Amino acid sequence: MKKIKFIFAFSLVSLLALTSCDPGDDPDVPPDPGTITDPSPDDSVFDKFNGELERNVTIKIVENDTAIKMGYLDELLDAFNEEYAEYGITAVDANQGEFADLPNSGPYGYGPDVIYQANDVLMGWVQDKHVTPLPTHLIEAYESDVIPTAAEEAYKAVANNVNYTFGVPLNIQAPLLYYRKDLLPSDWQTNWDDDNNGVPDMVENLVDLYEFSKMYHAEDSTKYGFEFSLNDFYFSSGYLFSYGAYLFGDNNRDDEDIGLHAGDAKLGVQVLRQFAAEMSAACIDDSAKLAISGAMASGKYFASVTTPDVRSVIVDTLATTYQSEKGLSAEEATQLADENVVGVPFPDLPANGDLINPSDEMIECKQMGGINGYAMSSYTKYPNASLAFINFATSYKMVKLREEILQIAPVRSDVAEESDELSQQLFEKISNGSIVLMPSIKAINQVWTPAGSFMGDVAADPNRGANAKYDTLDKIQAALEQLSQDIYDAIHLLD
Amino acid sequence: MNDVLVHKGMNRKVKRVLGAVGIYCILLVVCAIFLFPCLWLILSSFSSTGSLYDVPGFFPESYSFDAFIKLFTDTSNYNYPKWLLNTLVIAVFNCIFSTMLIIGTAYVISYFQFKSRRGLMKSALVLSMFPSFMGMTVIYILMTQFNFVNNIWGLVLIYSCTAPLGYLVQKGFFDTIPQSIYEAAKIDGATNARIFTTITLPLAKPIIVYTALTSFAWPWSDFILPKLLLIEKDNWTVAVGLMQLGQNEFARFAAGSVFIAIPIVVLYFFLVKYMVNGMTSGAVKG
After folding, report:
1. Which residues of chain A have a CB within 8 Å of the CB of B247?
2. Do residues B115 and B51 both lie within one domain?
């Protein structure tokens, strides 16, 4: 009897050990190169998408707060419910906030069926299988070939050497430089538009913005021409990428290769350090980011960096200021504020990375961005109805409506080519790689804190005088190498 | 001799006055320390701009009621009236159920002598020493089995069921009621139920008010349990909802915090007399 018990226990332990060692299902495990294939439509993973719509069901949708506030979600749900009324399918707001906790609520049956989020969030759930691979051959946006490759790649992950797609890209989310048009100098068209293209030079290149900032601050010492939270790596990483840095190797998939010190990344840090000398202490931490609406409304900042969803807050605050200062009605004030808060891509940078003695040659400033899109919960009981919703919500008609209501940059090329200039610029940047997409692997979570601390330290450096830590390019390079090593150690500490 | 006595008396008086002035000064400083954050929050709730960083010092730059108006009108993402209603429902029902259960438990333990009484008391004492968050995972899994996740009645159930463990103060109060009253009632032929309803409860008014008030106040401001169990926004309580407000919504957060404090402050002012009686009677054994 003892022998039987021993054999049974031994078999059980061996089985458990073998199961836990199987790396096959882990999408983060680098696969054997050269053997990765695209999934076949007959892949068993797609068996649940049999084309038969579940009838008389309710599917729960998570959308972002702005889409709810601006009324887009209601329009989308009404249109979908009308289209699928004959099947009894009803889509409703999951009512869980835009940061719905799928990993915790999903397994117990309380999560949403379809979720809208940025690619880094959605793809962060792939490894633990909270979102399900999608059959791209059944999705109109993919079949119509209107999704840029870079956006498509943001939603791909490899499991069992198959390159599955886990989401449908919808719009580009990238930080922009926002400025107050009404605070431009009255002579900007003659003195600040060298190329006569109708766009002020100070929002086209950082050298002129640097000069303008000094002038703006000299006129009133409480005001700053350009100020943003340098410690927010989502905002500041683009300056490093512009000079050759990257986050992870192999197109942001290989967390063994950290490249924040690569190329001439040190020049990007030098540019930021030089500009930080013309900013207030608010650039060291989140203060500038959190104060942006009030500071821009009061004219304390001429320009700053933030994400497009914050623009409406700036406009609202500026409208309130106009009402009290200019005596305008609420409607007039809002209209004027809307005209005067202008968003543009990051200004170009001097190729030599020196704002004080800049080169004539300029380079495009890269920026980190994300692709927001829809993914499907692995726990949904209605995969076909959910797929129908994703197809409907990413159709030309709905993406166009979304762009009109929310003023966001669409990913679909057929909508983007009819959009405004800014949306087209962002689409172009996504297509040519000037917007570096947030990596879709879990290791990105280990980047924000050390990189943010480093950039905050750089922002504080101009005030250290003789004790400066980053006053030479060699010191910056050494610090960047240490930063890359720290991030590597954080990711692989428990390997 | 008289001069010396007068001088000593004067000295004592001066010392007493100086002592009193010193104590009042300390009390004023302590009050200011406690009052400062509350006052700052109240002033911030009237800030015309929303962001925390638009309050440059102690006073906002400009004042308005906008935050309070938005709190009740702009409900597309943050449905404060619904959160307030949920909080009120949970607090009221918990107040009713918990008060009944705590008073019942305390009375039984105090009045009746039965075999496992001491064992029960010791068990309750030991169980109440474990912090409530220890059982969070278990509670969540149990609630999923009863389909009580995302359901405000699940919260009422948990609050009410765990409330009797805190019966000790109430038992202390019942211990102070003289046994002779009960004995007289028994001689007159009163049943246990009659004794409880016509003798004990009227005498226990202060401790009932105290129990009701604390049972109301606990879920009114609790955050951890509602955050764990309430998933959908329309089921959130005020404490959970306020935590989800955006970074630029500080004035609305402050307005929501001020508004949620009003009912509980009013209740305390009206019932403080009973509370003090209840606490002191329960704490001191006769």
Report:
1. 290
2. no
Q: How far does B59 lie from chain A, in Å, by closest CA? A: 15
- Classify residue A89: in a domain, yes or no: yes
The structural domain count of chain A equals 2
Reference A158, options A22, A20, A25; nearest CA is A25
What CATH number has the domain bearing residue A158?
Answer: 3.40.190.10
Query: Greater confidence, B11 or A267?
Result: A267
Let me know: does A255 contact A443? Beta carbons within 8 Å: yes
Question: Average pLDDT for residues A368-394, to the nearest whole number?
Answer: 96
| Minimum-distance CB partner of B248 among A68, A96, A293 | A293
**Position B286, amino acid:** G
Does residue B175 belong to the interface with chain A, where contact is any CB pair within 8 Å? no
Count of A-B CB contacts under 8 Å: 53
Do A453 and A337 lie in one domain? The reply is: yes
pLDDT in tens, A92-130: 999 988 888 899 889 988 999 999 999 989 998 998 899
- Supply the ipTM of this predicted assembly: 0.73
In this prediction, residues A197-222 reach a mean pLDDT of: 94
Q: Are residues B216 and B149 in the same domain?
A: yes
The kind and range of the H/E element at A115 are strand A114-118
Number of domains in chain B: 2
For testing contact with chain B, the best of A101, A105, A296 (most B CBs within 10 A): A105
In the block, which residue shows the tokens 């638009």? B54
> In terms of domains, do A374 and A467 share one?
no
Number of other CB atoms surrounding residue A20 within 10 Å: 7
Q: Domain for residue A296, yes or no?
A: yes
Q: Same structural domain for residues A254 and A380? A: no
CA distance to partner chain B, nearest, from residue A376 (Å): 19
Decide if pLDDT at A26 tops 60.
no
| Best CA proximity match to B206, nearest among B239, B172, B178 | B172
Please tell me whether residue A104 adopts helix, strand or coil conformation. helix
B interface mutation test: which of A99, A283, A313, A316 has the most B CBs within 10 A? A313
Extract the runs of DSSP E, i.e. beta strands, from chain B: none
Per-residue pLDDT reduced to its tens digit, A131-151: 999 999 999 999 999 999 889
Q: Do B231 and A105 touch (CB under 8 A)?
A: yes
- Counting every residue written for chain A, the total comes to 495
Residues B191 and B62 reside in one and the same domain: no
Statement to judge: residues A230 and A374 lie in one domain: no
> CA B79, CA B241: separation in Å to the nearest integer?
8
The CA distances from residue A493 to A20, A248, A255, A443, A488, in Å, are 20, 17, 12, 12, 8
> Could you tell me if residue A217 is inside a domain?
yes
The secondary structure element, H or E, covering residue B16 is helix B2-45
Residue whose entry in the numeric block shows the structure tokens 């962001």: B51
Residue B197 carries which DSSP code?
A: I
Closest CB from A96, A105, A291 relative to B51: A291
Whether the CA torsion B25, B31, B37, B39 is positive or negative: it is negative
Q: Is residue A25 part of a domain?
A: no
Instruction: Please tell me whether residue A155 adopts helix, strand or coil conformation.
Output: coil
Same-domain status, A269 and A353: yes
Rounded Cα gap, residues B28 and A348, in angstroms: 58
The span from the CA of A427 to the CA of A418, in Å, is 11
B25, B46, B66: which is the final residue of a domain?
B66
In this predicted model, what pLDDT tens digit does every residue of B108-156 receive, in sequence order?
999 888 888 999 999 988 888 888 778 888 999 999 998 899 999 999 9
Quote the tokens at residue A263: 């190329």
Is B280 in the A-facing interface, judged by CB distances under 8 Å?
no
Residues B275 and B165 in one domain: yes
* A210 lies in the same domain as A299: yes
- Give the range of the structural domain holding residue A314, as residue numbers without chain letter: 176-366+444-492
Beta-strand ranges (E) seen in A268-384 are 301-306, 341-344, 349-350, 362-363, 367-376
Q: Do residues B52 and B176 both lie within one domain?
A: no
